[in-house]
Design a protein that fits this description.
The complex is a heterodimer of chains A (about 160) and B (about 325). Chain A is mainly alpha-helical and about 160 residues long. Chain A has helices at about 5-40, 45-55, 55-70, 85-120, 125-155. Helix content of chain A is about 85%, strand content about 0%. Classes of the chains: A mainly alpha (about 160), B mainly alpha (about 325). The interface of A and B includes residues 29, 40, 110, 114 and 121 of A.
Chain lengths: ~160, ~325
């Protein structure tokens, strides 16, 4: 086992862990909010569920980058040798999706909770509610793009 | 900063409940109703209907309102992630009950006001506390005031004095609680309530002949306007008072309210405007999805709504014209 390989695995783990934590927090905040609305008005289950699911995407982005890194170091086929600095580079490349994923999911959860308040009063405005929550997603997508291009650009 | 995640559930439940508050249209229909019984029927279509199954007569509206306030308080108490916040709002009922019990006990007043079982201390417990003069479980300012009152009333009992001193103690207790939370919204709300109370007391005393010596006794602490400001203004005209506050947050409501006051000699308009001012403050802050604002806003909006219904029902039962009733009605929250 080389240190480079350890760094690369750490990169994959960090992407999955941090983005996953963010999504878990975000989805739970929005979920509590949705539960509040459904307690009083069970017909709004579908609309609130949609909003609850939005902060879940960051976890998927993190996992996606983790998979790409795993493919790159061929983890399922015996693992290729990775130089120390290459491993470090892979770790760094994973950071955008990990950190931005964590924070954007937490905050998207808050926006989703607020938007569930819109659904409580004006279910016909679902489109607007989703738009607000989706705007936070932009930055998670940008971070995913950055991580994706970085990981792809590193030659092992 | 509070632990906010617990609020997500509570706030969105309140969002749904806000839609069930009485809107302008329901209130207008109550106002336009031919008589009290018809107005009562409009009420039966709303959330209040659940309390009306065995109450058919319009003149029993108070029973419906007291059931509703009890329901709302116990609901918000169960939803509030920090139940201690509720003490700030329950305390006015505690103090009301203390006043009634205290006067019953020490002044032998019969046929007094009914007790309201909404406070943070159950009535049985409160009765015991007053009976045994064992005040240590009460908020400190109230306990201290009661001990002081025990000494005074032993010599010369005075119901008005009891009321004034306990009101003061209540605001002190509210300030203590608000300071403990370190949450700007709550502090500000407590300050606004103290200011509004002081402004109203000041003008009531102004309207009273030779009332100025009372001023020192009625002013409460905790407001943004210093108590010394009011004592300074004691000898000056109501207009001077109003113009001194022109650029304060209360400028607008004072201008309109005092205009009406000088024309008619009545403070009812100002009372309405003051209530509207507090409602407006709550409305501005209720959008926070992860804080106590919406819960407190709903609670006070319900109290406001009950006030509106009471004004309408009293007016209808006494056959007052709807236009006259309307002038006294507060703004609605939603």
């Amino acid at each position: 086992m080389e240190l480079g390989q350890v760094y690369a695995v750490l990169g994959a783990a960090v992407a999955a862990i941090l983005a996953g934590i963010g999504s878990a927090i975000g989805v739970s905040t929005a979920g509590q909010s949705a539960a509040g609305v459904v307690t009083e008005d069970p017909d709004k289950f579908g609309q609130t569920l949609l909003l609850q699911a939005l902060p879940g995407t960051q976890g998927i982005y993190g996992l996606l980058i983790a998979f790409i890194i795993m493919g790159k170091i061929n983890i399922f086929g015996g693992m290729v040798p990775v130089a120390e600095e290459t491993g470090l580079m892979i770790l760094m490349a994973a950071l955008p999706v990990a950190i931005v994923g964590l924070l954007s999911a937490v905050y998207q959860g808050r926006v989703a909770a607020a938007c569930i308040g819109i659904i409580a009063k004006r279910p016909e405005e679902l489109g607007k509610a989703i738009t607000f929550a989706v705007l936070v997603e932009t930055y998670a997508v940008l971070a995913l793009l950055a991580s994706f291009l970085l990981v792809n650009g590193i030659q092992v | 900063m509070m632990d906010n995640t617990n609020y997500a559930y509570a706030v969105s439940r309140i969002r749904v409940l806000e839609t069930r508050l009485l809107g302008r249209d329901k209130i207008d229909r109550m106002l336009e109703a031919a008589n009290a019984q018809d107005a009562f029927k409009v009420l039966a279509e709303t959330e209040y209907g659940t309390h009306m199954e065995d109450i058919g007569e319009a003149y029993k509206y108070e029973a419906v309102l007291s059931k509703e306030i009890k329901r709302v308080y116990s609901l918000i108490k169960s939803l509030m992630p920090q139940p201690k916040i509720m003490d700030m709002f329950c305390i006015k009922y505690d103090v009301h009950n203390i006043k009634v019990l205290y006067k019953n006990r020490f002044l032998n007043i019969k046929g007094s006001l009914p007790l309201i079982d909404v406070g943070s201390i159950p009535i049985d417990r409160l009765t015991e506390i007053i009976k045994e003069k064992n005040y240590k479980d009460l908020p400190l300012p109230i306990a201290q005031t009661l001990r002081k009152l025990d000494e005074i009333t032993a010599i010369r009992p005075d119901p008005q004095h009891i009321n004034l001193m306990l009101d003061r103690a209540m605001f002190e207790a509210i300030n203590d609680m608000a300071a403990r939370f370190r949450y700007p919204f709550i502090k500000e709300l407590a300050a606004i309530q103290a200011d509004v109370t002081n402004i109203m007391s000041f003008l009531r005393i102004k309207a009273m002949e030779g009332g100025s010596p009372l001023l020192d006794k009625v002013l409460v602490t905790g407001g943004k306007l210093e108590m010394s400001f009011f004592t300074e203004m004691a000898d000056q005209s109501v207009d001077a008072f109003s113009s001194r506050l022109e650029y304060s947050p209360y400028g607008q409501l004072l201008k309109e309210g005092i205009e009406h006051f000088t024309k008619t000699g009545k403070l009812s308009r100002l009372e309405k405007l003051a209530d509207d001012y507090i409602m407006e403050y709550l409305r501005e802050h209720k959008s926070n999805p992860l804080g106590p604002e919406a819960l407190i806003g709903y609670l006070l909006a319900k109290e406001n709504e009950i006030k509106i219904i009471r004004i309408i029902m009293v007016g209808k039962i006494n056959g007052i014209k709807s236009q006259v009733i309307k002038e006294r009605l507060r703004d609605v929250y939603v």
